[in-house]
C-alpha cells in the first residue's frame, strides 16, 4: 500500500495548500497575539486551515467510489448563510442594537462626514476598473472602503462571489489596522495648528426618547422610498436599533447585542473561509485586492479630512472644525473615534475630541450602509 | 478611456452625490425630530399619603 492510499491528504498536499495553511496560521496569530479583529480573523484563520487540507470533509468532495458529491458543512453554511445574505443581515440587526444615535443628535452636522469619508469606495472602484476588473468586481473591491465587514460581504457575495475571500480578509484586516493607517494620512493633510483646534462636545444635551425611537423608523422609510434596493441593509440595521431604543424589548436587545452577534460572527467567519481555498486565493488578484483595500482606506481618510478643511473655509474663527474629525466618517466604530481623540490629546492633552469624533463615527456607520445600498442600486443599471 | 471606466466614473459621481443627499435628508430629519420632540424632564410623582399629611398637621 503506497502513501497515496495510506495518507491521501499528505500525498495530495501542494505548496499552494501549505501557503494557505500559513495564511490561516498568520490570521490566528494576528487575532490572538495582536488582538486584530479576533472575532472574525480567528474563525477565518482556522477555517482557512480547515479547507486547505486536501480531501477535507468540511468542503464538498466527490466520492471516488460512487462519483457522487458529498456535501461539506462549510458549503452548506455558505449556501444557506452567505449566498442568501442571511448572516451579514443578522449581523446588521446586532450592530443596530449596539448603536446609540444620541451623539448624532448632539452634533447632527457631523453626519455629513459619514458621506465625505466614503470617497475611497468610489475612487477604488474607478481604480479597479482601470486595472481591468469588470464593473461588478470593481464595485465589490471598492466597497472594502466602507470599512464595514457585513456591507462588504453583502455586496461581494452578490456581485463577485469568487472574490469574497480576499475582500473579506482585506475589509476586516484594515478595520483592525485603522490606528496604523489613519494617523500618517491625517498628519500629511493637516498642520499642527489645525490639529490643535478645540471643538465643543455638546455632551450635556439630553435627547428625547421619542425622537430616538422615531429616528430608525423614519430613516427606513426615507431610504426605502428613495432606494428600495438599499432596504435590506439599512432596514435590518435600523430594526436592530429600534429594538434597542423602544424600551420594551430590553431582553431581545441584549440578546441581539450579545448572543446573536457572537453566534453569527462565529459562523460568518468560518463560512467565509470556505472561499479561501488555494485555487481561489493564491492569485495575483488577491494581492491586488489587498493593495486596493489599503488605497480605499487611505482615500476615505483623505475625503473626510479634506471635506472638514473645505467646511472650515466658510466657518468663522473660533467655530472651526478640527479637520481630524473628518477621518472619523468611516464605519470602523469606535476605533476611528478613539484614534482621533488620542491624536488630539497627543498635540494638546486638554483637547477632548472624543464626543464630536464619536458623532462623526456614528455618521460613518450610517454612511457606509447607505454607500452599500447605493452601490447595490446603481451597479446593475450600468453593468 | 474604456467603457467600464466611464461607467465607474459615472457611478462614482452619482454615488457620492447620492450619499450626500441621503445624509442631508437624515440631518434634516434629526433637526425636525429634535425640534418637534424635544427632551422633557419627567418630574417624579410625589405621592401624598394621608399619613404624611397627618404627621405634618400634628
What would you note in describing this structure?
- The complex is a heterodimer of chains A (383) and B (58).
- With 383 residues, chain A is mainly alpha-helical.
- Chain A has one domain.
- Chain A has 21 helices and two strands.
- Chain A is globular and about 85 Å long.
- The model of chain A has no long low-confidence stretch (mean pLDDT 90).
- Chain B is an all-alpha fold and 58 residues long.
- Chain B has one domain.
- Chains A and B meet through helix 8, helix 9, helix 10, helix 15 and helix 21 of A and helix 1 of B.
Task: Reconstruct the topology from this structure.
The complex is a heterodimer of chains A (383) and B (58).
Chain A: H1 3-6, H2 8-11, H3 15-33, H4 38-51, E1 61-62, E2 69-70, H5 73-82, H6 86-98, H7 102-106, H8 113-116, H9 119-130, H10 135-142, H11 149-159, H12 164-176, H13 178-189, H14 192-195, H15 209-226, H16 231-245, H17 250-272, H18 278-281, H19 284-312, H20 335-347, H21 354-382
Antiparallel strand pairs in A: 1-2
Helix pairs in contact in A: 3-4, 4-17, 5-17, 6-11, 6-16, 6-17, 9-10, 9-19, 10-11, 11-12, 11-21, 12-19, 13-19, 13-20, 15-16, 16-17, 16-21, 20-21
Chain B: H1 3-36, H2 50-57
What quaternary form is this? heterodimer
Question: Which stretches of chain A are poorly predicted, pLDDT < 50 over at least 5 residues?
Answer: none
Distance between the termini of chain A: 54 Å
Through-space gap between termini of chain B: 95 Å
Strand residue content of chain A: under 5%
Summed over residues and divided by their number, the pLDDT of chain B gives a mean of: 82
Provide the helix percentage of chain B.
Answer: over 70%
Compute the number of strand runs of chain B: 0
pLDDT < 50 runs, ≥5 residues of chain B: none
Radius of gyration of chain B: 29 Å
Structural class of chain B: mainly alpha
Spell out the helices and strands of chain A N to C.
HHHHEEHHHHHHHHHHHHHHHHH
* Biggest sheet details of chain A: 2 strands, antiparallel
- Helix count of chain A equals 21
Provide the number of structural domains of chain A: 1
**Average of the residue pLDDT scores of chain A:** 90
Shape of chain B: rod-shaped
Note the beta-strand portion of chain B: under 5%
Number of helices of chain B: 2
Q: What is the element string of chain B, with H for helices and E for strands?
A: HH
Amino acid at each position: 500500500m503506497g502513501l497515496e492510499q495510506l495518507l491521501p491528504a499528505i500525498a495530495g498536499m501542494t505548496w499552494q495548500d501549505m501557503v494557505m495553511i500559513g495564511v490561516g496560521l498568520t490570521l490566528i496569530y494576528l487575532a490572538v497575539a495582536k488582538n486584530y479583529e479576533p472575532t472574525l480573523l480567528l474563525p477565518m484563520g482556522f477555517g482557512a486551515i480547515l479547507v486547505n487540507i486536501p480531501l477535507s470533509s468540511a468542503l464538498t468532495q466527490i466520492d471516488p467510489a460512487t462519483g457522487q458529491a458529498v456535501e461539506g458543512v462549510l458549503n452548506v453554511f455558505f449556501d444557506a448563510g452567505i449566498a442568501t445574505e442571511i448572516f451579514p443581515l443578522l449581523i446588521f440587526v446586532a450592530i443596530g442594537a449596539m448603536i446609540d444615535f444620541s451623539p448624532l443628535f448632539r452634533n447632527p452636522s457631523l453626519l455629513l462626514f459619514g458621506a465625505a469619508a466614503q470617497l475611497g469606495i468610489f475612487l477604488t472602484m474607478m481604480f479597479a476598473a482601470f486595472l481591468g476588473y469588470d464593473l461588478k468586481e470593481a464595485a465589490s473591491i471598492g466597497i472594502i472602503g466602507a470599512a464595514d465587514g457585513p456591507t462588504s460581504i453583502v455586496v461581494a457575495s452578490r456581485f463577485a462571489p469568487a472574490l469574497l475571500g480576499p475582500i473579506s480578509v482585506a475589509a476586516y484586516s484594515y478595520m483592525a489596522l485603522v490606528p496604523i493607517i489613519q494617523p500618517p494620512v491625517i498628519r500629511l493633510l493637516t498642520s499642527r495648528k489645525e490639529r490643535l483646534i478645540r471643538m465643543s462636545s455638546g455632551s450635556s444635551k439630553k435627547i428625547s426618547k421619542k425622537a430616538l425611537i422615531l429616528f430608525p423608523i423614519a430613516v427606513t422609510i426615507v431610504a426605502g422610498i428613495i432606494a428600495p434596493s438599499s432596504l435590506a441593509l439599512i432596514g435590518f440595521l435600523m430594526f436592530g436599533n429600534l429594538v434597542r431604543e423602544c424600551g420594551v424589548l430590553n431582553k431581545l436587545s441584549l440578546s441581539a447585542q450579545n448572543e446573536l452577534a457572537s453566534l453569527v460572527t462565529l459562523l460568518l467567519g468560518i463560512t467565509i473561509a470556505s472561499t479561501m481555498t488555494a485555487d481561489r486565493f493564491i492569485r495575483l488578484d488577491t494581492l491586488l485586492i489587498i493593495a486596493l483595500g489599503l488605497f480605499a482606506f487611505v482615500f476615505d481618510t483623505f475625503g473626510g479630512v479634506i471635506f472638514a478643511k473645505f467646511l472650515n473655509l466658510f466657518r468663522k474663527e473660533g467655530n472651526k472644525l478640527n479637520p481630524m474629525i473628518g477621518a472619523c466618517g468611516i464605519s470602523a466604530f469606535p476605533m476611528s473615534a478613539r484614534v482621533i481623540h488620542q491624536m488630539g490629546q497627543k498635540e494638546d492633552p486638554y483637547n477632548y475630541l472624543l464626543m464630536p469624533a464619536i458623532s462623526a463615527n456614528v455618521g460613518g456607520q450610517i454612511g457606509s450602509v447607505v454607500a452599500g445600498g447605493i452601490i447595490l442600486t446603481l451597479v446593475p443599471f450600468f453593468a | 478611456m474604456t467603457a467600464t471606466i466611464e461607467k465607474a466614473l459615472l457611478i462614482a459621481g452619482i454615488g457620492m452625490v447620492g450619499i450626500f443627499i441621503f445624509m442631508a435628508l437624515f440631518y434634516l430629519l434629526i433637526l425636525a425630530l429634535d425640534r418637534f420632540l424635544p427632551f422633557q424632564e419627567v418630574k417624579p410623582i410625589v405621592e401624598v399619603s394621608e399619613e404624611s399629611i397627618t404627621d405634618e398637621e400634628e
